[in-house]
Design goal:
The protein has about 80 residues and is mainly β. About 0% of the residues lie in helices and about 45% in strands. The chain has no helices and eight strands. The chain has strands spanning about 1-5, 10-15, 30, 35-40, 45-50, 55-60, 65, 70-75. The strands form two sheets. It has a four-stranded antiparallel beta sheet with strand order 1-8-6-3, with no helix packed on it. A hairpin with a 2-residue loop joins strand 4 and strand 5. It is globular, with a radius of gyration of 12 Å. About 25% of the residues are buried.
Length: about 80
């Protein structure tokens, strides 16, 4: 199990717009470099990308939550486990 961490502080969002589907749902597959969320800081939305492939087992934050740099955002399981 690994985690995806925030690269900066800001406000966490799992979807690109309030009415849009999430970038990825819990239980969904992600590839390295795939955007799984965004962090809004100073009116700029910055992508949060997965560093490795795997399955998102759960998100540790909900939309609109303040996040600190280095804080864990999501848990990833290796697909082979």
């Amino acid at each position: 199990m690994s985690t995806v961490k925030a690269q900066q502080s800001g406000v966490f969002f799992r979807r690109p717009a309030p009415e849009a589907d999430p970038y990825v749902r819990e239980g969904g597959h992600v590839d390295p470099g795939q955007t799984i969320a965004v962090i809004e800081a100073v009116k700029t939305f910055n992508p949060v990308k997965s560093a490795s492939a795997g399955i998102v087992t759960r998100f540790l934050l909900t939309d609109g939550t303040e996040v600190a740099q280095g804080q864990e955002i999501a848990e990833l399981a290796d697909e082979n486990t």
